[in-house]
Design a protein that fits this description.
Blueprint lengths: L6 E4 L5 H10 L4 E4 L3 H9 L3 E2 L3 H5 L4 E4 L4 H8 L5 H4 L5 E4 L5 H12 L4 E4 L2 E2 L1 H7 L2 E6 L2 H14 E8 L3 H29 L4 H9 L6 H12 L8 H18 L4 H18 L7 H9 L6
Parallel strand pairs: 1-2, 1-4, 2-3, 4-5, 5-6, 8-9
Antiparallel strand pairs: 7-8
Family: Belongs to the HIBADH-related family.
GO biological process, one term: glyoxylate metabolic process
GO molecular function: 2-hydroxy-3-oxopropionate reductase activity; NAD binding; NADP binding
């Protein structure tokens, strides 16, 4: 029998499914629960165990990992008679890899401590591709000892794994990450429209920009989306809208000005209001095209 910890995984979406599958490939026993039957079938097909409820998934688990869209979903799966805290064993480690508010993570850690359950907030960056390739950046908040215990497991999921401070710190760093990503995508989108309107060979231009100071992971990952206008979601505008709300609220609370970030947050919100919330966040290009009177929309 494997000496690896027994894993319960709650939330098998775009990110959660490939992450859980990477743990299975590494030899972990993974029992998963999610609301979508097809995602449970996918988990079972790839060697995991499908549970019929949160209680069934977490009972007896050494480590519980959650990956759901936002704070309300984390609270829904964690609390109440059917939630994680009611059924996880004392001493279990709960690793929440969702992107939520720092305060939600702090509150969860306090509530879990009363049940003898340890908690890390450990949101990720890298998108669907990073999840599939197991090269995510993982920013954690919580006790050093719990982080050290989780590190071998986290190294199966990501490439850059850093403890950023106490509970909630991982979420604060993730909020900063989402701010940088959104502003970067917006700048890239504006450059794309500028280049095309100027009659420049766009793929050639993006290649040379990527090799200089303007190069970034965002440009490398998203340039094909820009050139082909393929906005199949790797990370949806709806979720980035949520994250921009988190970072602007958190910045206001600590007195940090976000002059550019606030503008980009409004552009993300406008794109969502125009019906593009289900598209990849590289679809910020569509907003720039609309403002420029230059659109390739069908």
């Amino acid at each position: 029998m494997s000496n690896l910890p027994k894993i319960a995984w709650i939330g098998l979406g775009i990110m959660g499914s490939p992450m859980a599958e990477n743990l299975i490939k590494a030899g972990y026993s993974v029992t998963g629960y999610t609301l979508e039957a097809d995602k449970l079938e996918r988990l079972a097909k790839n060697g995991g165990h499908a549970a019929g409820s949160i209680a069934e998934a977490v009972t007896g688990a050494d480590v519980i990992i959650t990956m759901v869209p936002a704070s309300p979903q984390v609270e829904a799966i964690a609390y109440g008679p059917d939630g994680i805290l009611a059924h996880a064993r004392r001493g279990a480690l709960l690793i929440d890899m969702s992107s939520i508010t720092p305060q939600t993570s702090i509150d969860l850690a306090h509530a879990a401590a009363d049940k003898g359950i340890r908690v890390l907030d450990a949101p990720v960056s890298g998108g669907e591709a990073g999840a599939i390739e197991a090269v995510l950046s993982i920013m954690a908040g919580g006790e050093q000892a719990d982080f050290d215990a989780a590190r071998p497991l986290l190294e199966t999921l990501g490439k850059t794994i850093v403890r950023c401070g106490p509970h909630g710190s991982g979420q604060t760093v993730k909020a900063a990450n989402q701010l940088i990503v959104a502003v970067n995508i917006q700048a890239c989108a504006e450059a794309v429209v500028f280049l095309e309107k100027s009659g420049v060979d766009l793929p050639a231009a993006l290649d040379v920009l990527g090799g200089g100071l303007a190069g970034s992971t965002v440009l490398a990952r998203k340039k094909d989306n820009f050139t082909t206008r393929d906005f199949t979601p790797g990370f949806r505008i709806d979720l980035h809208h949520k994250d921009m709300g988190i970072v602007t609220d958190a910045a206001r609370a600590v007195g940090a000005a976000l002059p550019v970030g606030t503008v980009v947050a409004q552009l993300v919100a406008a794109l969502r209001a125009q019906g593009d919330g289900g598209l990849d966040h590289s679809a910020l290009l569509r907003g720039v095209e609309r403002l420029s009177g230059h659109t390739t929309e069908s």
